[in-house]
């Protein structure tokens, strides 16, 4: 069975504080719908706008609410290796399954620099590490050769979140390291990623379609209509800067306020209209 995890949003109140009541509503529903895990304080959580204390408070709150019913991975990556190590050491004291470490952004290290970054982190901490390859946002891309070398050296590098269309790399890694877990981190490639051998999906759109994703991953009789609906939703989820679209979707479900922290803002009226049209057309499926 494929694993389905959600890159969790951070709901905010109207006075721009973390909204834990809304977070509880979202967590409770997703657990009921079969969500296997949560990425806490990843980029979908608007982490650049969260303080250090807010991040730890969110992590501890999610741990307390989830109660070991699902995996919890904590976002620790940055473009400062020393700071990443400190964050990982702090996080591994908590009841988590591992840390998610994005490739260093803006700095654009070469392959040697990427290897050295992850090598230093994995050597300094004991917890499981999930590499996060998202070149469209960071400007650098992990290659097969780099990931292969890291897996060979470090037993605690156990997973990869692959948020790009390089599926040949996925096939090669799974062939060489069948126990190494690879998750699709790109909602727009979920079908192709699973066909390439990925072990599951770390989703943003999963906030509002977990039931359908569960059916899609577990039932071989999925029809093309469901596939088209999911692709349409994936497109809408990233029609503007994430997580603005999915926050508006959750707002339509009365689960959180439609509020983001600057520099992100709520979706445009045009995007609202497209999302409302989709929800009206598919409301019975989303609520079943």
UniProtKB/TrEMBL annotation:
<feature type="active site" description="Proton donor/acceptor">
    <location>
        <position position="132"/>
    </location>
</feature>
<comment type="pathway">
    <text>Amino-acid biosynthesis; L-lysine biosynthesis via DAP pathway; (S)-tetrahydrodipicolinate from L-aspartate: step 3/4.</text>
</comment>
<comment type="similarity">
    <text>Belongs to the DapA family.</text>
</comment>
<keyword id="KW-0963">Cytoplasm</keyword>
<keyword id="KW-0028">Amino-acid biosynthesis</keyword>
<comment type="subunit">
    <text>Homotetramer; dimer of dimers.</text>
</comment>
<dbReference type="GO" id="GO:0008840">
    <property type="term" value="F:4-hydroxy-tetrahydrodipicolinate synthase activity"/>
</dbReference>
<dbReference type="InterPro" id="IPR005263">
    <property type="entry name" value="DapA"/>
</dbReference>
<feature type="site" description="Part of a proton relay during catalysis">
    <location>
        <position position="106"/>
    </location>
</feature>
<keyword id="KW-0456">Lyase</keyword>
<dbReference type="InterPro" id="IPR002220">
    <property type="entry name" value="DapA-like"/>
</dbReference>
<protein>
    <recommendedName>
        <fullName>4-hydroxy-tetrahydrodipicolinate synthase</fullName>
        <ecNumber>4.3.3.7</ecNumber>
    </recommendedName>
</protein>
<dbReference type="InterPro" id="IPR013785">
    <property type="entry name" value="Aldolase_TIM"/>
</dbReference>
<dbReference type="GO" id="GO:0019877">
    <property type="term" value="P:diaminopimelate biosynthetic process"/>
</dbReference>
<dbReference type="InterPro" id="IPR020625">
    <property type="entry name" value="Schiff_base-form_aldolases_AS"/>
</dbReference>
<dbReference type="GO" id="GO:0009089">
    <property type="term" value="P:lysine biosynthetic process via diaminopimelate"/>
</dbReference>
<keyword id="KW-0704">Schiff base</keyword>
<feature type="binding site">
    <location>
        <position position="202"/>
    </location>
    <ligand>
        <name>pyruvate</name>
    </ligand>
</feature>
<feature type="active site" description="Schiff-base intermediate with substrate">
    <location>
        <position position="161"/>
    </location>
</feature>
<dbReference type="GO" id="GO:0005829">
    <property type="term" value="C:cytosol"/>
</dbReference>
<keyword id="KW-0457">Lysine biosynthesis</keyword>
<comment type="function">
    <text>Catalyzes the condensation of (S)-aspartate-beta-semialdehyde [(S)-ASA] and pyruvate to 4-hydroxy-tetrahydrodipicolinate (HTPA).</text>
</comment>
<keyword id="KW-0220">Diaminopimelate biosynthesis</keyword>
<dbReference type="Pfam" id="PF00701">
    <property type="entry name" value="DHDPS"/>
</dbReference>
<feature type="binding site">
    <location>
        <position position="44"/>
    </location>
    <ligand>
        <name>pyruvate</name>
    </ligand>
</feature>
<feature type="site" description="Part of a proton relay during catalysis">
    <location>
        <position position="43"/>
    </location>
</feature>
């Amino acid at each position: 069975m494929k694993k389905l995890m959600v890159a969790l949003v951070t709901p905010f109140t109207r006075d721009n504080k973390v909204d834990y009541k809304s977070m509880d509503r979202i967590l409770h529903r997703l657990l009921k719908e079969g969500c296997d895990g949560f990425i806490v304080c990843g980029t979908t959580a608007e982490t650049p706008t969260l303080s250090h204390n807010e991040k730890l408070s969110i992590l501890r709150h999610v741990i307390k609410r989830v109660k070991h019913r699902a995996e919890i991975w904590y976002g620790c990556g940055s473009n400062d290796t020393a700071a990443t190590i400190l964050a990982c050491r702090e996080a591994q004291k908590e009841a988590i399954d591992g840390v998610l470490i994005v490739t260093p952004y803006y700095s654009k290290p070469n392959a040697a620099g990427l290897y050295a970054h992850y090598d230093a982190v994995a050597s300094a901490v004991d917890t499981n590490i999930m590499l996060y390859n998202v070149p469209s946002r960071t400007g650098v891309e992990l290659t097969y050769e780099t990931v292969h070398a890291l897996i060979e050296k470090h037993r605690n590098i156990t997973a990869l979140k692959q948020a790009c269309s390089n599926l040949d790399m996925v096939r090669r890694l799974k062939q060489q390291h069948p126990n190494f877990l690879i998750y699709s981190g790109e909602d727009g490639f979920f079908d192709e990623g699973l066909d390439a051998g990925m072990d599951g999906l770390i989703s943003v759109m999963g906030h509002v379609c977990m039931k359908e994703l569960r059916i899609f991953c577990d039932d071989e009789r999925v029809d093309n209509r469901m596939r088209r609906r999911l692709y349409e939703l994936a497109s809408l989820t990233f029609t503007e800067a994430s997580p603005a679209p999915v926050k508006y979707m959750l707002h339509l479900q009365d689960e959180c306020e439609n509020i983001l922290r600057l520099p992100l803002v709520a979706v445009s009226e045009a995007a609202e209209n497209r999302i409302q049209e989709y929800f009206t057309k598919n409301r019975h499926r989303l609520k079943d």
